[in-house]
Design goal:
By secondary structure, the chain is of the alpha/beta class. The chain has one domain (3-223): TIM Barrel (Alpha-Beta Barrel), CATH 3.20.20.70. It has nine helices and eight strands. Helix 7 runs parallel beside helix 9. The two termini are 31 Å apart.
């Protein structure tokens, strides 16, 4: 199974993505290898430009470094940026498997999705908590992955916004079996249960994994195999 097929045809559900935003960047390669060995299905890279969200993070160079260090890892890139059409090819060249951008930042989502696929990646579309689902719905069929943000994006460690769960349930009913529904933000062992109940089959967590003393237990709790 190729890395991109891990997104669209996973071997088990729900999948768990470890967001490296909460990792120790001085030990990034070792920590990422450890969370994957502990059962995480993919690494989630939060790319922020300091404009679309009030933080500035990583770019293609970090993606390339992780691909070189972890050639079999699935790299799920989430671009929280004002111009999501920039850097599609650089991320593909850096080894990204999945590239997600925000509905709030792009006027022609289907066209950008095709550019992402043409570069060899799967395409995702994200929606922020205040944005109504109606803004996303015309484009749902054009994407491999839909991401519902459960915090206002920008920083790790925020509290989960419960109101997004109704949006998530509505979106789940509209997806094909080969589309993934991802949630990201404020997810821990307790809130992951609500995400799974709402239909999410790809759960992303940062602090709940990387700041845990037991990566394997943290991943198992997010997946629902241990009590939260």
């Amino acid at each position: 199974m190729s890395r991109s097929r891990l997104i669209t045809h996973p071997p088990h559900l729900p999948l768990v993505g470890a967001s490296i935003l909460a990792a120790d960047f001085a030990r990034l390669g070792a920590e990422c290898r450890a969370v994957l060995d502990a059962g995480a299905d993919m690494l989630h890279l939060d790319v922020m430009d300091g404009h679309f969200v009030p933080n500035l993070t990583m770019g293609p160079a970090v993606c390339r470094s992780l691909r070189d260090a972890l050639p079999d890892a699935c790299l799920d890139v989430h671009r929280m940026v004002t111009n999501p059409g920039d850097c599609v090819q650089p991320f593909a060249d850096a080894g990204a498997d999945q590239l997600t951008f925000h509905i709030e930042a792009e006027s022609d989502p289907p066209a950008l999705a095709e550019r992402i696929r043409a570069a060899g990646m799967t395409a995702g579309l994200a929606v922020n908590p205040p944005t109504p689902l109606s803004q996303l719905l015309p484009y749902v069929g054009a994407f491999d992955l839909l991401l519902v943000m459960s915090v206002n994006p920008g920083f790790a460690g925020q509290s989960f916004i419960d109101d997004v769960l109704s949006k998530t349930r509505d979106l789940r009913r509209r997806l094909r079996s080969n589309q993934r529904l991802q949630m990201d933000g404020g997810i821990n062992g307790a809130t992951a249960h609500d995400c799974r109940e709402a239909g999410c089959d790809l759960i992303v967590a940062a602090s709940a994994i990387f700041r845990s003393d037991d990566y394997a237990r943290a991943v198992a709790m997010l997946r629902g195999r241990l009590p939260g």
